[in-house]
Amino acid sequence: MKRLHLIVSGLVQGVFFRAHIKSWSSELKLIGWAKNLKSGELEIVAEGSEKNLNELLKRIKKGTPMSKVKNIKKNWNEPLKKFDTFEIRH
């Protein structure tokens, strides 16, 4: 189990990107959250197997038809295990 903290920049707000991340996270059995930042970036915290976190990261890098990911800042840590599901925070 690992924890991945991401700050994603680019065209990532207003394009249903958080909904895709939530769907992917559910599919990959990851827990955590995603929220828009006032800076226009997207913050994501996900916990689960390293393999599934790497798959999530790969999907985020690729983006969605409406999004355009320019940069991803990432930090790997030990999981906090404070989540039960993956949620979108406001």
- The best one-word shape is globular
Q: Report helical residue fraction.
A: 25-40%
Strand content: 35-45%
Please give the CATH architecture: 2-Layer Sandwich
**CATH topology, what is it called?**
Alpha-Beta Plaits
Distance between the termini: 26 Å
Radius of gyration: 12 Å
Number of folding domains?
A: 1
Largest sheet descriptor: 5 strands, mixed
Written description of the protein model:
This protein is an alpha+beta fold. The protein has a single domain, classed as Alpha-Beta Plaits, CATH 3.30.70.100. It is 27% helix and 41% strand. The protein has two helices and five strands, in the order βαββαββ. It has a five-stranded mixed sheet, covered by helices on one side. The chain is globular, with a radius of gyration of 12 Å. The model has no long low-confidence stretch (mean pLDDT 97).
Which key phrases capture this entry?
5-stranded mixed sheet, 90 residues, 2 helices, alpha+beta, single chain, Alpha-Beta Plaits
Give the gist of this structure:
The protein is of the alpha+beta class. It is about 25% helix and about 40% strand. The chain has one domain (about 1-90): Alpha-Beta Plaits (2-Layer Sandwich), CATH 3.30.70.100.
How is the secondary structure organized here?
Layout: E1 2-11, H1 17-27, E2 31-36, E3 42-48, H2 50-62, E4 68-77, E5 86-89
Parallel strand pairs: 2-5
Antiparallel strand pairs: 1-3, 1-4, 2-3
